[in-house]
Write a structure and sequence with these properties.
Chain lengths: 177, 206
């Protein structure tokens, strides 16, 4: 995977700025904060969601060896609505946007890796957009299971259910059938 | 500000500390500070969810509040201030400004909320005193929801004037504060009692 290569190269260049330890259910970012850092998950898991009228809508889930960021804030450098919260006890490595940009522009190869990561990200976003438009819960489940089987080992059901826009009960019924 | 509101109260010179100079800050920095504090409150409240009901009800002294009583006290303030702030923001016609200048009273109230090194006691208005209420863990979730609401309102506040938008306050119908000061009062007041809660958890060594 290109993301692992990217993480390895950042490590070799000694650009990880610090390690962050999060307790279970701890907020890394809340609505209204500007967070332009890029994080890499050493262990644990996190979720990115928006909080709307007392309801949480899951946007992304992250676990070991994933990059995670409030991508809107990362790009715009302004406050965003996204919340990032740990699910389990989690450890992250951090790199600031400034040093990350310096890093990817320092060699043609780094830039190529980043472009490949961005391509994958756009591809995933289009898949995700289709997921959200599909009416059948079973179909939504199958698509995500095929795309990210690991997700079902790393993330508790209730967050996967929220990601799939169904109740935890519906998800466990689908999983059994 | 209605000057007559101060009639009958203590002389201003003794009532207000002399160093209460008003404060100027970039609006963006003010919002950032309040969001950061609110994030910390959320993380502290999350930890309380795992405490036993005995610990949540433990009173460090006969007249002292338990964790749940602190939480309920904050909920009562939130129930007044959050809808008040929301409707004032919605009705506000003034545009956002780069700088916020605190008002005289607003700055005094906000700063008086901040706890001293050794947490000083303050007088509580009767209707805000939670002692003797029947409380359970659901109060914690209510306060968590209120923190999310606060974050929501702080985002909305970015598009109106923190200076010209005014809100009522819970303790006197004659006084209005600038929106920026009201936010400070609410968040600093939360902070004060989160420190109090932290002290109780330390005493319980949990």
């Amino acid at each position: 995977m290109d993301t692992n290569l990217l993480a390895k190269k950042i490590k070799e260049a000694h650009l990880w700025e610090k390690t962050i330890d999060l307790e279970r259910n701890e907020f890394l970012k809340v609505k209204g904060q500007t967070d332009t850092n890029l994080y890499y998950v050493i262990h644990g898991s996190l979720r990115i969601f928006v909080y709307h009228e007392s309801e949480e809508h899951t946007i992304r889930l992250g676990y070991k060896d994933n990059f995670i960021a409030s991508l809107d804030s990362f790009i715009s450098e302004s406050p965003s609505n996204l919340c990032i919260q740990s699910i389990k006890k989690t450890q992250l490595k951090v790199i600031s946007k400034k040093s990350f940009l310096g890093f990817i522009h320092s060699s043609n190869q780094n830039l190529q890796i980043w472009l490949e990561v961005l391509n994958q990200l756009i591809y995933q976003q289009i898949e995700r957009e289709q997921d959200l438009l599909i009416t059948s819960p079973i179909e939504r489940y199958k698509r995500v299971l095929q795309r990210s089987p690991l997700l079902f080992q790393e993330i508790p059901n209730k967050y996967i259910a929220s990601y799939l826009r169904m109740t935890p009960e519906t998800l466990s019924r689908i999983k059994k059938s | 500000m209605n000057g007559s509101a101060l009639n009958g109260m203590t002389e201003p010179n003794t009532f207000y500390p002399k160093n209460n100079t008003s404060m100027r800050i970039k609006t963006k920095d003010l919002i950032e500070e309040l969001v950061e504090k609110t994030k910390n409150h959320l993380n502290e409240l999350n930890k309380l969810k795992s405490l036993s009901i005995e610990n949540l009800n433990y009173r460090p002294g006969p007249d002292k509040w338990s964790i749940l009583e602190c939480v309920e006290h904050l909920n009562r303030y939130g129930r007044f201030y959050l809808p008040e702030i929301e409707s004032r923001i919605e009705q506000s016609k003034s545009l956002a400004e780069d700088e916020f200048k605190s008002g005289f009273l607003g700055n005094y109230f906000a700063n008086s909320m901040l706890p001293k090194v050794k947490l000083n006691t303050m007088k509580t208005f009767k209707e805000m005193n939670p002692i003797g209420s029947d409380l359970d863990e659901s109060s914690i979730q209510t306060l968590i929801d209120q923190q999310h609401k606060t974050l929501d309102l702080l985002s909305k506040a970015g598009s109106v004037s923190m200076n010209k938008t005014k809100t009522s306050i819970s303790i006197s119908k004659w006084i209005k504060l600038k929106l920026g000061d009201t936010f400070r009062v609410v968040v600093y007041h939360n902070y004060r009692h989160m420190v109090q809660i932290k002290n109780i958890t330390k005493e319980l060594s949990i």
